[in-house]
Request: fold
Amino acid sequence: MTKRQKRPSDELSDEQLLEMYYYMVLSRKLDERMWILNRQGKASFHISGIGHEAIQVAQGFAMRKGHDWYFPHYRDIATCLILGVTPRHMMLALMGKEGDIFSRGRQMPEHFSYKPAKIVSVSSPVATAIPQAAGTALASKLQGKDEVTIVGFGEGATSEGDFHEGLNWAGIHKLPIVFVCQNNQYAISVHVSKQMAVENVADRAVAYGIRGVVVDGNDVLASYDVMKEAIDRARRGEGPTLVEAKTYRPVPHSTADDDRSYRSREEVEAWKKRDPILLFEKVLMERGLLDEAKKQEVLDRVMAEVDDAVDYALNQPYPPIESAAEGVFGDSPLVKWSKKGTING
Amino acid sequence: MTKRQKRPSDELSDEQLLEMYYYMVLSRKLDERMWILNRQGKASFHISGIGHEAIQVAQGFAMRKGHDWYFPHYRDIATCLILGVTPRHMMLALMGKEGDIFSRGRQMPEHFSYKPAKIVSVSSPVATAIPQAAGTALASKLQGKDEVTIVGFGEGATSEGDFHEGLNWAGIHKLPIVFVCQNNQYAISVHVSKQMAVENVADRAVAYGIRGVVVDGNDVLASYDVMKEAIDRARRGEGPTLVEAKTYRPVPHSTADDDRSYRSREEVEAWKKRDPILLFEKVLMERGLLDEAKKQEVLDRVMAEVDDAVDYALNQPYPPIESAAEGVFGDSPLVKWSKKGTING
Amino acid sequence: MAIKTNLQAVRDTLMEIMERYDNVVVMGEDVGPRGGVFQATRGLYDRFGPDRVIDTPLAELSIVAVAIGMALNGYHPIAEIQFADFIFPAFNQIVNEAARYRYRSNGAWPVPLIIRAPYGGGVSGGLYHSQSVEAFFTHVPGLYVLAPSTPKDIVGLLRAAVQVPDPVLFFEHKRLYGLVKGEVPDDYYEIRLGEADIKRRGDDITVVAYGLALHEAIKAADKLSEQEGIEAEIIDLRSLVPLDLDTIYESLRKTGKILIVHEDNQTGGWGAEIAARIAEEMFDWLDAPVMRLGGPDVPAVPYAPPLERWFLPLADKIAGKMRELAEY
Amino acid sequence: MAIKTNLQAVRDTLMEIMERYDNVVVMGEDVGPRGGVFQATRGLYDRFGPDRVIDTPLAELSIVAVAIGMALNGYHPIAEIQFADFIFPAFNQIVNEAARYRYRSNGAWPVPLIIRAPYGGGVSGGLYHSQSVEAFFTHVPGLYVLAPSTPKDIVGLLRAAVQVPDPVLFFEHKRLYGLVKGEVPDDYYEIRLGEADIKRRGDDITVVAYGLALHEAIKAADKLSEQEGIEAEIIDLRSLVPLDLDTIYESLRKTGKILIVHEDNQTGGWGAEIAARIAEEMFDWLDAPVMRLGGPDVPAVPYAPPLERWFLPLADKIAGKMRELAEY
Ligand SMILES: Cc1ncc(C[n+]2csc(CCOP(=O)(O)OP(=O)(O)O)c2C)c(N)n1
Ligand SMILES: Cc1ncc(C[n+]2csc(CCOP(=O)(O)OP(=O)(O)O)c2C)c(N)n1
Ligand SMILES: [Mg+2]
Ligand SMILES: [Mg+2]
Reply:
């Protein structure tokens, strides 16, 4: 009998495991509430991380908080929470309220940005962050810093030229970067089989001379193992990894979507049985770290936070109208504007 | 001893082999004259096919002339000659004279275009034709036509997003298309090792679920074998191939380049010993198809054509100035212009 | 006479065009079974199948490039860019390729195709689901640019657009998709590119607009007429390129005063060109400065409702500018 | 006082900037050992090595994207686009990303970087090595756009550009690289963005220009002065965004007549915005219509020498328009 190899997740303490669980539940419950707020007419839009929490929590725990660079996928609510974004921040952004740290009510919800945590501003066009992330990684490398850059995206985004160009740079310069593709099999309605002719996104790594790894993105510990190793390798100067986390989106693409036109209810139901929270609860229970009482405790704590966040955000004002015109350019004594207020003065 | 497998080039007749040789020499001599005309101040620009004639002639012979779709690489003088472009056409385009069939003096030289031969108009931005070629191929397939699309480009162009997106489409739809990369190891001054982290461009095919083949692009018969097989497969519905023809550019990138800053004379001289014309002459001589007298005969014929083309082109006028304003849009009874002459009337 | 929304007008006309012309394909992200994120292609996939209604990879560059290739090879593709904001990855293919193919080949290789894109704000889309991008294309010789804003105009212009042998950008204001309802004549008709339409008659001032701004301008004009007796003539451009200067100039000869309104950022917007043409060619007819009201020069429409309203060319704002012009 | 060409001015200033600021890198196709296809970066690689002078893959999208990423992480990159014509693959990264980063993050994530690009015709570059592309960017809030045309201005503006905390497009007219020689003061100086420069004094008409058109306008003005006694004031914009309306308006108050000249396609060019602003804000000062002379509306400059000359804003053509304006 061969001895099982030690995995990075073996080093996680019981507290850390329970913290992971807590973040998965917090993310889920916040997310569910966001859907409800949308249906109640209190938020115009929400794009969801439901079902993707395992890989998201895994990467959050594998990063060095506030040290590594992070370009989130727009579904990465759980990761952002781990890095320091609070439920209140999330709700403020959802409603576009004053106090929204991402954009001060300028961007749609889930367009994360939080400089203290090195969470780089998310934009809507998919894949654009991928080659930008090669840029932060190149800067880290040239400056001899041991930062790693992590950039997230969906499998649909891999069809854009940006993906190709970003991975190509990473390969050429052997950059300290980890590309994390959350392959949930759909880009809105388009199935991955219409997105690419290969089985795995990770199979594309070879075209760039970099490592590619497939992992079960619904298994938080397996995801942690893969992410930790990829980040450690990058930090040690051993080059980039393209991680593909296989997962599924059990809800519509966003509050604006209706997924019944493009996939069967059976398919969705089958995947719900592989819900990452359910899977992790099983593990924790097996290890004796979780029971029904403990679960309820976590849930109570989470729901209190969610309630607080919602109440708080609902009671905040919108940003003042004047704010919308501000900050197109930074101030500089080397710039002279003929008149104020428009780009041309 | 295993029997040598029959290769497509075995089917080429002696006449065909000599015709291939003729086109290689014609292309070379035209090309050399173009450099001279540039140095004499009679042409402002030229970008050369010297050293690339083997793969170019090979693909020209492997295509079905006037039936298959062809998006040339800008170095593909030899291929265009095979498909029906004449030396006069080449010289007219070189000088931007009236009678230039490519663009009527609008585009720089070597921006081929010749509808009767299905040579699609070349533009300068590299790689843009690659996904367009997926479009002609998709149209052929949807219409049930047995046309194949051939698209040429350099290894530098493979870094552009266009390359990725074009090959991705080809893989998804299993298109009747052959991608032909003439890897001459430099994109102007940038060595291929700064362009990608993999050994072969063809290694990238796997990322798209398509075939990739490397061939010695200076060996015309080997190149023919690979091109013929790729085109035949595509025509039979067996999907796309990415062909990488390894070659070298023994001259500067264009008449505007000076290659001494980025590579050694030794490197260049070493490659000149692998000149595709020399290599093919050896084969033809071994097969008893060529001797010094026959070589001289071909050369005389070629030089007469080159001289004729130059004389002809030098004596042609430039296109009339009025022509420059014409043909921005096609005529249509469904369009009303307020005034003539500008896009807005 | 059927009453349709703008969205229905798009959808029904696509259906009709695909019936009429075998060589038309519709392609884009989610245009297949999903029927498009705005449902503009709903029903097409069921009717015409995957060979003519093509769900593409998530890649705008190649949506346009593949459309160009298909146009070279016998098709007249209608490509959808899901939101106008996402047209920029395809910018090189549109501007350097589609627009220049005919000219660079001296007429040998035209590329007839349509690129449809929903644009504009008012749907809480924030910076990246609200942009107006027309001015990037009106500057490019070789592209037709249309922006119809009523069901009737959408039908007539789409029918014409699919018959012109060159690339057409067809911008549909997404806020108007469900908001605007109007009559569509039962008898077949086409509207030529380059013909503006006077949507409201008036003698005091001329207002040129399109998109959401058009409908808001009409509201503003009705109010000003009622409350202050100012009569504005409202010209709906419908077609940005070609630009119907004849109609604009004719109205201006009557009113002597003109205001151009659009939602796109004011600076460098299409209104600048219109104003510049008027300033040069109609100098002697002007009784007041040529006025413009465009979007504020910030990078697109913000998300929070009050900020979004601040950006948009809503009736009150337009009315203010109209009053200023009338009183000049 | 050294005499330099425009090209030397670019090169020497890049060298100086890289000496002065550790966090500046130069990146682009062939900028390394080759020194750039125009030799604008010659010598930099030998001096600063491959970590600060980066030969990139042939991929404009990622040249800009990587520059953005480096700007986020402490650098102030100077990216070269080999020809302005090839900037379009990077359009999405420039317009949707670089220009919007600061605004979309409410100031948290500015991206200080410079994109240099040689533009313009007159070098037998044909459709794809001659384009003027500035108007695509002057329309975008969040981008500075510079187009200096003399050695002195290039030096002063490049020194300033590398200190502003936002993206700057720095367009260099390639025909002028070797053609224009001029004095560069020995003492260190900077030129603020947004300050135009009066390159020739005159009381009869005002001419606004930049690039090749500027130098041709000066030629035309000298000739008209000599031969016909028309005195033109020539304003070199240098900076397109910000636009120095103060200087333009001041001159116009004196002359009452204004002509805007640029090489870029006239329709929708930057001249349209300038004309529109004047038409609105200086209505009472105008003694003649605001005139424009831009490139003809064909898809870029053709190759054959006579066709190329037809396209360009050469002195004779400008003189004709100046005369028309003076005589109005
Ligand atoms: C450039 C661009 N094109 C289109 C869109 C519209 N859009 C938003 S999300 C999405 C699907 C993304 O799919 P995928 O990358 O698989 O991520 P997922 O949403 O499944 O997590 C699309 C098409 C966009 N945001 N950006
Ligand atoms: C989009 C774009 N960027 C830059 C250029 C300038 N340029 C012309 S050819 C060339 C190098 C091309 O190298 P490669 O693709 O290897 O082809 P080769 O010339 O070596 O045959 C470059 C950078 C261009 N034409 N298009
Ligand atoms: Mg997905
Ligand atoms: Mg090459």
Q: What stands out?
A: Chain D has twelve helices and 14 strands. Residues 32 and 50 of chain D are 7 Å apart (CA to CA). The longest strand of chain D covers residues 258-265.
